[in-house]
Amino acid sequence: MSVLDLARAEIRALQPYSSARMEASGGQLLLNANESAWAPTGDGGTGCNRYPEPQPAALVDALARLYGVRREQVLVGRGSDEAIDLLVRAFCRAGRDTILIQPPTFGMYAVCARIQDAGVIEAPLRRDFTLDMGATLAAVTSAVKLVFVCTPNNPAGSVVPRADIERLARALAGRALLVVDEAYVEFADEGSVADLLDRYDNLAVLRTLSKAWALAGARVGSLLAHPDVVALLRRIMPPYPLPLPSVNAALLALSGWGQANARAHIDIVRAERVRLRAALAGLPGVRAVLPSQANFLTVRFDDAGAAYQRLFEAGIVVRDVRRYPGLDDALRITIGTPAENERVLAVLADRSMARGAA
């Protein structure tokens, strides 16, 4: 059975749009795409008067090297969000198919499914925010086409062991595509599962340059998957997903200097995660700090609303995650620079002392 048998038949049969860049490459005088012959004001030689490559070859090659996969296993798009949306549209028939998620988790999986009028089945994480393998497998029905697993998890920061990912991939073979979201994997002790792609054709991995690579504003993400899945999604992807400035920013970030710089910052975040977790846990009013393998800490408070307001009044914005199941007393705090982390601790300590004085 081919992994494409899981996809919508009408998408497999779709005649994709053929752009000018797809139909012709090379040449010196480009008169095939109705572009302006003049560069925009202040362009600086970037060539923004021309459409970019649909899948920029230099960037695809750089990402393939970075992630240890073949270039035909890489699809580059506008952050992980675009890949999630494309997967749902390609594999889920409106009103008939479903996705499976493990809440609390990243909200865009369910949003994309509901936009497509696909169902959403939930197999909640355990109380300690680890994957409930039995519940997850029991929730898989014949209508489930995509199973999303976020590791490290957002918003809890927990991880799914590699052995569990493999078990899921084996159990879902011929039934559903397993999509592992590794947006925060650079900060984790355990590495990517992208090396399993050649072993399981029903496995896909989401990666992004938004977090560890400091390019949230550039919106560059990747889907790593079987070449047939990549080719299928290109059928329904807009012809020019990545702006040239974003491509150039990504190539600079992935250069030798850029990688060294990013890895130095990752080391700082990992060290600060340990320090900040211990310091937060020692503050009065803090109930617990959840273990995290990401670049954030999720913190339980006696009064999370008051803690949020205190930080906000001091000019510090954190994420209120009280709407997520099992986190009704929690805030998610991104790990910043050492100085920024000290400011968070100082504000929360002031709040604690104020309560004690009262």
From TrEMBL:
InterPro entries: Aminotrans_II_pyridoxalP_BS, Aminotransferase_I/II_large, HisP_aminotrans, PyrdxlP-dep_Trfase, PyrdxlP-dep_Trfase_major, PyrdxlP-dep_Trfase_small. The modification N6-(pyridoxal phosphate)lysine is found at K211. GO terms for molecular function: histidinol-phosphate transaminase activity. The keyword Repeat does not apply. It is an enzyme of class 2 (transferase). Its cofactor is pyridoxal 5'-phosphate. Signal peptide: none annotated. Its EC number is 2.6.1.9. Keywords: Amino-acid biosynthesis, Aminotransferase, Histidine biosynthesis, Pyridoxal phosphate, Transferase. PANTHER family: HISTIDINOL-PHOSPHATE AMINOTRANSFERASE, HISTIDINOL-PHOSPHATE AMINOTRANSFERASE-RELATED. Homodimer. This is Histidinol-phosphate aminotransferase. It comes from Dyella agri.
